[in-house]
Amino acid sequence: MTRTMVVTCGATVPFPSLVQAVLDLDFLTTIRERWNFKKVVIQYGRGFGGEFEKRVKALGSASAHGKEAIGKASRDLGVELEVHGRVAAVEICGFAFTTDIEGLLRVHADLVISHAGTGSILDALRLHKRLVVVANTGLMDNHQLQITDRLRSRGHLVAAHDATSVAVLEAVVSAMEADSTTPLATGTSEAFTNLLLNVANS
């Protein structure tokens, strides 16, 4: 069974260190060989597309911006991709923003790696996806830190201790090899948001 990893960096503020962590040859080779991840979809945020494309090309991708390949991959995923390539036999798909990240996660994500924004955490947990959260320590506030730490301690997610490829890979190992994670009760978006706030303040 082939797998897809979805990485969400946030819509407005880029998270270059997380992008760098997952666009690492050792990281990509390991996730492909160990768990058969053949596709990594990265939502990198507005204003980072040019830099993202440079990083994909620097890894040796010969088709980082082919229109035909982007068109097909966009249709398959249901998002408007801006960058597409193949690195270490892993398909790399990049886009800045979508209004339907939930649909992408629901249909395609076998594992989610997310920044620590509460909305992104909520999207993944509501869909009962295996989740690794990586803190953007340059932007992280105490509220996000509390939410991440409490949800980690309750078994809902795995937290990487920093945004290096080694740390993120260690967290992926933990997430993929865990028998299961503790699901949050289903409910409305408002109920989930309130639960996250209550967890942070408990």
Automatic annotation (TrEMBL):
It comes from the Eukaryota. It comes from Lachancea lanzarotensis. PANTHER family: UDP-N-ACETYLGLUCOSAMINE TRANSFERASE SUBUNIT ALG13. Pfam families: Glyco_tran_28_C. GO terms for cellular component: cytoplasmic side of Golgi membrane; cytosol; UDP-N-acetylglucosamine transferase complex. The lineage of its organism: Eukaryota, Fungi, Dikarya, Ascomycota, Saccharomycotina. This is UDP-N-acetylglucosamine transferase subunit ALG13. Keywords: Endoplasmic reticulum, Glycosyltransferase, Transferase. The keyword DNA-binding does not apply. The gene is ALG13. Its EC number is 2.4.1.141. It is found in: Endoplasmic reticulum. The keyword Transferase applies. GO terms for molecular function: identical protein binding; N-acetylglucosaminyldiphosphodolichol N-acetylglucosaminyltransferase activity. Involved in protein N-glycosylation. Essential for the second step of the dolichol-linked oligosaccharide pathway. Heterodimer with ALG14 to form a functional enzyme. GO terms for biological process: dolichol-linked oligosaccharide biosynthetic process. Belongs to the glycosyltransferase 28 family. Residues 4-185 form the Glycosyl transferase family 28 C-terminal domain. It catalyses: an N-acetyl-alpha-D-glucosaminyl-diphospho-di-trans,poly-cis-dolichol + UDP-N-acetyl-alpha-D-glucosamine = an N,N'-diacetylchitobiosyl-diphospho-di-trans,poly-cis-dolichol + UDP + H(+).
